[in-house]
Amino acid sequence: MEDTGFNMRDETHFPTFAELPGDYDLDLRYYDDPGSDSDGITEPIKHWCLLAEIVQQIPHGRPVFSVRDKADERFTVGLFLGNRAVIPPSWARRCRAGGVIAIMYATAHDFVGGQHGVRVEEVENVMFFPCSLESFLRIGDEVTAVPATSKCAQCDQPSALQCARCKFTRYCGKDCQKASWTSRHKNECLAVQQVVDWSKRDWEEFDEYWMD
């Protein structure tokens, strides 16, 4: 696989909360330096995504979550999306405790009341997945493994089939495919699709914001 800078264990592009740039900081790890002769507008110099597992939804007038990142640090994520934001119908199924929230271009924010977390204002920058963070990171390891696995995901035997949705997870036959779907892949397939897509993108060079 071509080196695109994709590694979900690496904090360069998949930082922990502690490694995020601040809302009002010119963090040169993430942004260019506009210099004294510019209009002061900065742009990212690379792509990054914060991954966290939802611990619980906090009762509030807007979507607010207590989450934990891959360093097991707990913090708050608040979605301030505006009245005209179109909320994807799928959120109702995926936005739950034990699932993953993925936030592109996340920045650390200090909320009123002293809580530290992430404030999200663009609906396009948020994705939810119905699998655990541990499963999500394992999928990242599997997608970037060289050579890619050709064994059945259920029984580890040589495979002849692949999932029609993610086109990555492999099976030796229909029985194993059905068993895997029921026990695990139903909740992981969407994450596999996203990770496969991410693995094909260049995370090192910022060209435009990736909006889904």
TrEMBL record:
UniProt cross-references to Gene3D superfamilies, sorted A to Z: 6.10.140.2220
Matches recorded under PROSITE patterns: ZF_MYND_1 (PS01360), ZF_MYND_2 (PS50865)
InterPro entries: Znf_MYND
Pfam families documented for this protein: zf-MYND
Alphabetized SUPFAM superfamilies for the sequence: HIT/MYND zinc finger-like
GO MF assignments: zinc ion binding
UniProt keywords, alphabetically: Metal-binding, Zinc, Zinc-finger
Domain of life: Eukaryota
Domain MYND-type: from-to ranges: 152-189
Protein name as it appears in the record: MYND-type domain-containing protein
Organism: Hypholoma sublateritium (strain FD-334 SS-4)
Upper lineage: Eukaryota, Fungi, Dikarya, Basidiomycota, Agaricomycotina
